[in-house]
């Protein structure tokens, strides 16, 4: 099964941090997709730290009401293999929210790589002259 192969991969690689996208807010945590590894999973959020609202699909930190997680918000999670009780599960835990500055920086880096790839793919492309 795919779950077993995911477990074996993270058992070999060790604990990894990755960016995830929140797809759903549930009573006890967040449903996320981790695009880097092509997996989805559930991130448990402690009830004493987070107020989770399924109706509005938001998670609000109890100590700081300004910290909110909504659908499609990007967060950083830790992924690790968990073989306690011989269950062979992959555990995903919340690390932090991706800040706006980090998102802008990542976009700028990605855009620069895209432009470089275009130059390599189309070296003879004419560039419009500045008048």
- By DSSP (H or I, 4+ residues per run), the number of helices equals 2
Largest sheet, order of strands side by side? Answer: 3-2-1-7-8
Average pLDDT figure: 86
Total beta strand runs: 8
- Category from helices, strands and their pairing: alpha+beta
The proportion of strand residues reads 35-45%
Overall radius of gyration: 19 Å
Could you spell the SSE succession in H and E letters?
HEEEEEEEEH
Give the low-pLDDT segments.
none
Q: Please tell me what the overall shape is.
A: flat
Question: How would a textbook summarize the main sheet?
Answer: 5 strands, antiparallel
* Share in helix: 25-40%
Distance between the termini: 61 Å
